[in-house]
Amino acid sequence: MSCCYSRNLGAYFLCLSVFLLVIFQATPAVSRIYIDINSPLQKKIPIAIPSFLNEGGDGANQSMGKNLAEILNNALSFSGLFQGLDPAVFLQDPEKMGVKKAEIKFSEWSFLGADLLVRGSYQIQGEQLGLVIRLFDVIQQKLLLKRTYTNDLSAARQTILTFADEMMLHLTGEFGIFHTQIAFVGKATGKKEIYLADFDGSNIRQMTRDHHINLSPAWSPDGKKISYVGYKRGNPDLYTMDLITKVVEPISMRPGLNIAPSYYPKGGKLAATLSFTGNPELYLLDARGEILKQLTISWSIDVSPSWSPDGQKLAYVSNRAGKPQIYVLDLSTKRSTRLTFEGDYNTSPAWSPRGDRILYAGLHDGMFDIFMINPDGSELRQLTGGEGNNENPCWSPDGRLILFQSDRRGTLTLWVMQANGTDQRRLRLNLGGSQTEPDWSPRLTRATP
C-alpha cells in the first residue's frame, strides 16, 4: 500500500472511546459525553430506546409509540456513535414502564449493558402531537436532558429529529446532522437528474426534470439554493435552483465549459471552471454569474475547486505537473502549492468543515479509493480499499461522516462511513438506477440548546 496511517501514540491511548465529565445539575449547565470520533478504537455508546408511552388523548395509536422510538433509534445509529439495544431483550413491557427518574429501574438497564436510556411519552389531540422525551445516564442514574414538544402530527419525524439534534449537542457539544439533506445525481429515469434526500436517504425528491444530463450539485451556504451543471442546451452550463420556489436561473452559459460550481463559505459568490478563453481555468463569480476575478492562470486544466472553511484557500485539481494532482491556492498570495505526490491520478478534493483535513479520490492499484490528507501535505491516510471504485467524497457538516459513491456492489450507489474510514455502509435510497456525485447540505434548521 502506497500510503500508511500515522498515529499519535499519546492521543491513541488518551481517547480510547468515551468518557464522562462531572454530571450536571438540573440547571441549564450540563456535563457532556465527549467522543473522539477519529479514534480507531471508538466504542459505540449502548443506548436503550423503548417504545414511547401513550399517555392518553384522542384514542390509542398502537404503532405510534413504536414508530417514534424507531425513528430516534435509526437516526442515532446512523450517526455511527450509538448502538441501539434490541427491544427483544428488554426486561419490561414499555407500556407498563414509567418515564420519570423515580420510576426507572436503572439496575435492569445496566444489566442489559445500556449506558444511556431514552424514555418518551406522547399524547394525540386532534392533529396535534405532544411529546415529552427524557434522556438518562444509566450508570450514574441521572436525568441528563428533558424536552417537551407540541407539533403537528404530520411533523412527528422532524420533532424526533429535533430531539436527536439536541441530544447530540448535549453529549458532544455540537449539533448533529439530523436536519441536513444530501443532493446527488440519480439515473432512475434513465437520464441524469438532480435529487434531494434527507441525511439518511429517506424522503427522496427529484428536483430537475430536463430529460438531459445534470451533474455536480452544490449547496449554497444557507441551504436555500443548489447550483449544478446542466446540458439542456447541449453545452455544460451552470444553473442555480431556488429550493423554495423551484425557479431555475442560469449562472454561466459562456462558450465552452461552465462546470464544477463551489460556493464561497460565506455566500454571495462561487468558484467554477470556465473555458471560454480556450483553457479551463478557475474563476470567482458573483451570484448572477458575473466574473469577479480569474483565480488560476496556466496552460493546464484546473477543475474541482473546494473552499477552506475560512474562504482563504481553495483546493483544486490540476494537470500542470503532467497528471491530475491536488493543489492548494492561497487567495491572499495567489500562490498554488502542490498537495499530493502519491499516485498518478488524484481528483475531487473536499475540505473538511473544521479545515484540518482534505479528502480526495486517488487511483491506486487500478481502482479509485478515498484518501485523507492534512492541508500541509502530512498524514496521508487511505480510507477505502479492496472494494471497487470509491469516488467523489464529501463531508457531513459536523465533520463526523463521509459520503461517497462506490461501485463495490456493481451499480454506482452512495455509501457513508465514519471520518476515520470505519463503519462503511450503503445509504438506504429507495431509488432505481445509479446514484453519484453527492453533496451534503449545511444544517438547514437548528435545535434550540
Topology record:
Elements: H1 9-14, E1 18-20, E2 33-35, E3 45-48, E4 53-57, H2 64-78, E5 82-84, H3 106-111, E6 116-125, E7 128-137, E8 142-152, H4 156-172, E9 181-186, E10 193-198, E11 205-206, E12 214-219, E13 225-230, E14 237-242, E15 248-252, E16 258-263, E17 269-274, E18 281-286, E19 291-294, E20 302-307, E21 313-318, E22 325-330, E23 335-338, E24 346-351, E25 358-364, E26 367-373, E27 381-382, E28 390-395, E29 401-406, E30 413-418, E31 425-426, E32 435-440
Parallel strand pairs: 3-5, 3-6, 4-6
Antiparallel strand pairs: 1-2, 6-7, 7-8, 9-10, 9-32, 10-11, 12-13, 13-14, 14-15, 16-17, 17-18, 18-19, 20-21, 21-22, 22-23, 24-25, 25-26, 26-27, 28-29, 29-30, 30-31
Helix pairs in contact: 2-4
CATH architecture of the largest domain: 6 Propeller
Name of the level-1 CATH class of the largest domain: Mainly Beta
Principal-axis shape: elongated
Oligomer: single chain
Report how far apart the termini are.
45 Å
Low-confidence runs? 1-34
**Biggest sheet, open or closed, and with what strands and sense?**
6 strands, mixed
Strand runs, count: 32
CATH superfamily of the largest domain: TolB, C-terminal domain
DSSP summary: helix tally = 4
What proportion strand? 35-45%
